[in-house]
User: Fold Protein kinase domain-containing protein from Ciona intestinalis.
Amino acid sequence: MELKKFDPSEFPSNYHDYKLLGKGGFGEVRACYHASLGRVALKLFRITGGRKDIKRAKRGLEKEAKILQRMKHPHIVTFYGVTSLFEKECLVMEFMEGGNLNELLMSKIVLSWTSRLRLLHELISAISYLHNHDRKRAFIHGDIKPQNILLTKSRSLKLADFGSVNISERTGVSTTTFEIPHSTQHTWPYTAPERLNDPDLKKTAAMDIYSYGITAYEVLT
Assistant:
């Protein structure tokens, strides 16, 4: 499946028209207005290093984009396509007005038990889709945490940041795992103990469930 590519002319030409939403090891996320989509979020990648490093990073970016493009679920962030702006490669995604789950949990807003349980149901629905929607492959998110869970204005959630995804091919009772080249990060305390003990250990669906459990604990307490 070919990636949809946007022409840079469809976006503002002035860098000051891009509102900073957050930063990470990959680069930064900014919001702007697109000619037809309206307000969108852009994940701008900072690609540096030698020729091999740049090639590896671009390959990882393309794989993340292709994974996002195939995800069609109400609680996974919508991906629109790719573009290149200000000499940076970008993923174009829907803009989430409600911020992220971590910001909500750190705020003084008191959530009802109904709201908390609804959020957890939406999250496990997205995780289950990742693990099970493809009969031949399981997609392991690898970095589930409140910062990667975005919220709509009405506080419905969508899972985001697929830069750590692993793909496990189902071959009988065994699986063969393919990692996105730039997917080395993990976040304590949401990382399963076995991976903390051995960072080279392949990610599994059980590790995603562990991360979900820690997130659920924070939502419920």
